[in-house]
Amino acid sequence: MRVAVFGATGAAGRRIVDAATRRGHDVLALSRATGVDVLVLGQVRDALAGADAVIDAVNTPTLHAQEATEFFRAAAANIVRASAEHGVTRVVALSIVGIDRNPHGYYAGKLAQERVYADASVSHTIVRATQFHEFAGQIWSSGGWGPVHAVFPARLQPVDLGELAEILVDAVEDAEAGGIRHVAGPRVEELPRLVKAWARATGHRGIRFPIPAATDQLKGMRDGANLPDAALDAPLIVGTIDFDAWLATQRTR
């Protein structure tokens, strides 16, 4: 099967490309780095010529609701339109667990993305995942001011990216796929513990400074809105690699 992966050079996209390639698929790795801007319809249309299926793993760095909504809505609309024109039989979109209960900030954009697919005629599956194990390192890096690193309270059930990539490829191979599937790791965690463990294991030194959940999005994460236990209206797939097992594979800097 010729599988087009949008967002192919991102953290999730790279793992998806690897998983699909190992299974023998002819993979089109699509991103701005490979010359395809998902926001330019003509480029998306040209890239999907001959494709049988699509995995949408595009991402944007913005945390603002309006910017995220505009990006994800436009990207999904271009993928839907080009897929329909080329007769693509299956589209799988990577989304996030709990965004309908925590529709704020970046998550508002992901919800808009899902709605584009829900309104489309092309056959599609939404795979909602919890945060990746790498999230702890992202929080350390993004919340730093010199040696001080801000950490907010959040309850997570992080998932291994390698396992998630395999599940996304499973979905694109499944002729009966459709609707929404949820994917989570095996254990509920507290974000401050994950950040502390990540920093220690990878040799990052600094002061962890606890801050309150100041935005609606962070309040939702604090209260567990992005946990799959509140999302059992759809099939739940639970991975086997917990955060500590994943962390043991990371090299000390």
UniProtKB/TrEMBL annotation:
Residues 7-134 form the NAD(P)-binding domain. GO terms for molecular function: protein-containing complex binding. InterPro entries: ComplexI_NDUFA9_subunit, NAD(P)-bd_dom, NAD(P)-bd_dom_sf. It comes from the Bacteria. SUPFAM superfamilies: NAD(P)-binding Rossmann-fold domains (SSF51735). Pfam families: NAD_binding_10. This is 3-beta hydroxysteroid dehydrogenase. It comes from Microbacterium ginsengisoli.
